[in-house]
Specification:
globular; 11% strand; alpha+beta
Length: 64
């Protein structure tokens, strides 16, 4: 699966599979990680194939 390359620069996208694993992120993902003080997530391999829930710590958000 792919995310369109023409995604606006201020919109960051990710895609999950049926198991809630991140299988695709937009080309500007590294910028998103840097802007959110998440230097450990700058590299796409640090994010891809991991459960979305690994990145959500807020209890209220996890409940959604």
């Amino acid at each position: 699966m792919t995310i369109p390359a023409n995604t606006p620069k201020n919109i960051y996208k990710y895609q999950i599979d049926e198991n809630d694993k991140i299988n695709c992120v937009s080309e500007n993902w590294d910028k998103f990680a840097e802007e959110n003080d998440a230097a450990d997530l700058v590299s796409k391999p640090q994010v891809l194939n991991r459960p979305l829930w690994d990145f959500i710590s807020d209890r209220e958000t996890r409940h959604l």
